Amino acid sequence: MFKRVIVFLLVTIIIMSTVACGNQTTTAKDGKWKIGIMTNTVSQNEEEYRAAQNVLAKYGEEHIIHMTYPDKFMDEQETTIANAVSMASDPDLKALLFVQAVPGTAAAIDKVREINPDILIIAGVPGEDPKMIAEKADVVFQADEVSMGTTIPEQAKKQGAKVFVHYSFPRHMSYPLLAARRDLMKEKCEEIGLQFVDATAPDPTGDAGTSGAQQFILEDVPRMVEQYGKDTAFFSTNCAMQVPLIKAALDEGAIYPQPCCPSPYHGFPSALGIEIPEDKKGNIDYVVEEIKKRIAEENGTGRFSTWPVPVAMMFIEAGAEYAIQYINGNTEGKVDIPKIQELFKDYAQVDIKTMALEENGVTYDNYQLVLLDFLNF
Q1: pLDDT, tens only, 231-266
Q2: Looking at the chain, which residues constitute the CATH 3.40.50.11390 domain(s)?
Q3: pLDDT reported for residue 27
Q4: pTM, entire model
Q5: What is the DSSP secondary-structure string of 14-74?
Q6: What's the CATH architecture for 28-145+312-376?
Q7: Which of 128, 122, 127 has its CA nearest to residue 141?
Q8: Does domain 148-306 have CATH number 3.30.559.30?
């Protein structure tokens, strides 16, 4: 009889333990978790690819799945969907990051929700309708492009600028966002006492091509400095113009507050002749130190700046940390803005401002527009 009681108790304990384990919420502390990250290929955007690889190196393949969408993502959206479904099919997947959230992401999220509606989904740099992506993803991150119309002239003023030159062309000025930012820049310049110069450059897609547009910048910046003086700040809306703009501004002793896409990688390494070794790919600190060194050699210290990190890399690496905090139960639900701000600041090491997107009178609290303070070289 005594032995039967002991056996019964042992069996009861085993059953209760099994049930209890089955009912536990899986967290990162249990070791049973995975995060999926979808980025560009290295040929499309190396920064984002490297950021995902940084997360993979930190946490290992047992916790991180990194997949890419196709280079021709506009024509091959079904591949983006299939890759997202592949990751979501892993029963241990607890969060999924899309950076950039290219067209096709919204449809991919729908398919992922069919498999597991509870997965945390983060979409960075969305390429689809804001309202639609805000409704489908749990959290959305995007750089606050419009507010740059205020912050860039203010930064130029701090760097000693008296004149602000804005290079663009009719095609870009037909884009509402770029035109609105230009208008804000003009208003801010008038407010803080900068002379605003609205300069037209050749369109790189026009007859002169990219090389013609770049050559124009190399030749026009010295003319502008001769006319307005060295305390002239330069900005261009076009990515292809950043390298010649940085080079010419440095050669002429002028001011360059920010590339069109704020990042230490955007324009600076090529303009300054910085070769990044293979073992330093994705190493922001290395690139920043090399930029500071080259600019100092040309007596440009204090007159060149950008954001301290590429926002897309921050969205991936800090976004992954946020996902882990969520999995561990350390956030106030899926949308914890103070926690997001804290992790962004830890990553960038500068002040971060975020604000909810407001469109047509509707505020999307989970769609956060992000603005970083400047890194001065």
Answers
A1: 999 999 998 899 999 999 999 999 999 999 899 998
A2: 148-306
A3: 57
A4: 0.78
A5: HHHHHHHHHHSPP-GGGT--EEEEEE--TTT-HHHHHHHHHHHHHH-TTTEEEEE--TTTT
A6: 3-Layer(aba) Sandwich (3.40)
A7: 122
A8: no
